[in-house]
Amino acid sequence: MAGKASLALDAIYDILILDADGQHLELESFKDLDTARRRLPALAAQYPGIKVALWNRHTRVILAETEGY
Are the CB atoms for 9 and 26 separated by under 8 Å? Predict the structure, then answer.
């Protein structure tokens, strides 16, 4: 089903909460970047005022990030 989060170990993209201590708390993982980008706003809305980020597991680069703190 398109748009559903992947729990597979081969997922490349994660949506994370970045907490005040600098820890990354994983919310969902995806194999597809477009799906992850579409899901980011909905997850960010669930956590108002908290920084939520989309990152690439392989490169460890943050691809998108919401405002927070």
Answer: no
